[in-house]
């Protein structure tokens, strides 16, 4: 069954969406069974969004269709040259049943920056926001309501053109899929141990580190496996000069004794919206925030002298996690201090209180998706 729905309010781009309902959608009972224990990234909703782009036609044919396999030519450029970008965000259900997302214009702008770096077309912000509203319009029942659960939204874009020559693709597709997410730390937020990779880097100077692109993740998988072998859950990377960069998929913030927060500024890290928001909340509380190059040695000597009392990692999926240990090949930093953990957890609480509508959204960070 296909219904052509004009937009309630025509977007700037004036798109007419084609909506095809999934006849094999999960029953309410099946859906509730999944939502009772969704985990992360295991289950997907009944529908997906896709929009085509071509050099000649620009963005066209926006669709909502049943979730399912994508048919690709074996020569599709993405499969060979990794021309791909993505975003990650969440839809939160508030106590009154309404559904909101967090700072989506920041994700839209970041996806445009990623697109520029990866020679992909930029998706206008209005279409990006509309694509999120469209998937929620059909899959709203998939947004869970248990505490600290959400519907993870995964917009992504890749080179679909079947061509083995090396140049930016002239045919590209943009999609949104959605996956219910459980409370990341069911038993309370536990500090994580981090392995410092010195043999490998996730990105280099002038590389693609600032773009949210699959290749950066591909290059982090081997060091991530090494981290597991060392008994750590995550891996941290340095730049060529020995400055701290970030984890495979989360940013890092160091906490000084006087409450100052220090975080790496670098052209080769992915600038997290969670980090930016947490640092804004910390600034509101009177903390000094420093965004600058952070030599690893500063962390090591600061931890030894007591100048640096802790550290935390942050990103959309896990929100904020205190770092308990940083393990290197020939050294170890242990942050047993409760003070920095308490600060990290207080900032986490405040951020999630805003996201779930439990306190005032004083920065205007929420965008409603279901109306
Ligand atoms: C997505 C991502 C982050 C975190 O960004 P958020 O906007 O906070 O989710 C950090 N590092 C990398 C490499 C990422 O891909």
From TrEMBL:
Keywords recorded for this protein, A-Z: Amino-acid biosynthesis, Aminotransferase, Branched-chain amino acid biosynthesis, Pyridoxal phosphate, Transferase
Q: Name one GO biological process term.
A: isoleucine biosynthetic process
Q: Which residues carry this modification: N6-(pyridoxal phosphate)lysine?
A: 212
Q: Which reaction does it catalyse?
A: L-leucine + 2-oxoglutarate = 4-methyl-2-oxopentanoate + L-glutamate; L-valine + 2-oxoglutarate = 3-methyl-2-oxobutanoate + L-glutamate; L-isoleucine + 2-oxoglutarate = (S)-3-methyl-2-oxopentanoate + L-glutamate
Q: Quote the EC number.
A: 2.6.1.42
* Pathway(s) where this gene product acts: Amino-acid biosynthesis; L-valine biosynthesis; L-valine from pyruvate: step 4/4; Amino-acid biosynthesis; L-isoleucine biosynthesis; L-isoleucine from 2-oxobutanoate: step 4/4; Amino-acid biosynthesis; L-leucine biosynthesis; L-leucine from 3-methyl-2-oxobutanoate: step 4/4
Q: Which residues form a coiled coil?
A: none
**Pfam families per record:** Aminotran_4
The keyword Amino-acid biosynthesis appears for this protein = yes
Q: SUPFAM superfamilies recorded for this chain?
A: D-aminoacid aminotransferase-like PLP-dependent enzymes
**Care to name a GO molecular-function term for this sequence?**
L-isoleucine-2-oxoglutarate transaminase activity
CDD domains documented for this protein: BCAT_beta_family
Q: Where is the signal peptide?
A: none
Which cofactor(s) are needed, names only?
A: pyridoxal 5'-phosphate
Family the UniProt entry places it in: Belongs to the class-IV pyridoxal-phosphate-dependent aminotransferase family.
What this protein is called in its record is branched-chain-amino-acid transaminase
Protein's organism: Agromyces badenianii
């Amino acid at each position: 069954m296909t219904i052509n729905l004009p937009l309630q309010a025509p977007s700037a781009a004036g798109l007419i969406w084609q909506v095809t309902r999934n006849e094999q959608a999960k029953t309410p009972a099946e859906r509730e069974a999944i939502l009772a224990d969704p985990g992360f990234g295991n289950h997907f909703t009944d529908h997906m969004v896709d929009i085509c782009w071509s050099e000649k036609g620009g963005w066209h044919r926006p669709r909502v269709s049943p979730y399912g396999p994508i048919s690709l030519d074996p020569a599709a450029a993405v499969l060979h040259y990794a021309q791909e970008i993505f975003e990650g965000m969440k839809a939160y259900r508030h106590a009154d049943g309404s559904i909101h997302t967090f700072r989506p214009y920041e994700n839209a702008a970041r996806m445009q920056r990623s697109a520029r770096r990866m020679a992909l077309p930029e998706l206008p912000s209005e279409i990006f926001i509309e694509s999120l509203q469209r998937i929620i319009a059909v899959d709203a029942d998939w947004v869970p309501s248990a505490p600290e659960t959400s519907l993870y939204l995964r917009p992504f874009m890749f080179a679909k053109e079947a061509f083995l020559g090396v140049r930016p693709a002239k045919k590209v597709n943009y999609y949104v899929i959605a996956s219910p997410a459980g409370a990341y730390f069911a038993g309370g937020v536990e500090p994580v141990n981090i392995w410092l990779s010195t043999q490998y880097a996730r990105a280099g100077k002038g590389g693609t580190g600032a773009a949210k692109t699959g290749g950066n993740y591909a290059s982090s998988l081997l060091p991530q496996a090494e981290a597991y072998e060392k008994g750590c859950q995550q891996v941290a990377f340095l730049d060529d000069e020995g400055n701290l960069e970030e984890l495979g998929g989360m940013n890092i913030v160091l906490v000084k004794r006087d409450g100052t927060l220090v975080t790496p500024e670098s052209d080769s890290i992915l600038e997290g919206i969670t980090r930016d928001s947490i640092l804004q909340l910390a600034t509101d509380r009177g903390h000094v925030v420093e965004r600058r190059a952070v030599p690893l040695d500063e962390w090591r000597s600061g931890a030894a002298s007591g100048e640096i009392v802790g550290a935390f990692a942050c990103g959309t999926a896990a929100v904020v996690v205190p770092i308990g240990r940083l393990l290197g090949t020939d050294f170890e930093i242990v942050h047993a201090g409760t003070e920095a953990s308490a600060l990290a957890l207080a900032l986490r609480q405040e951020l999630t209180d805003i996201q779930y509508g439990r306190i005032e959204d004083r920065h205007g960070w929420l965008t409603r998706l279901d109306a």
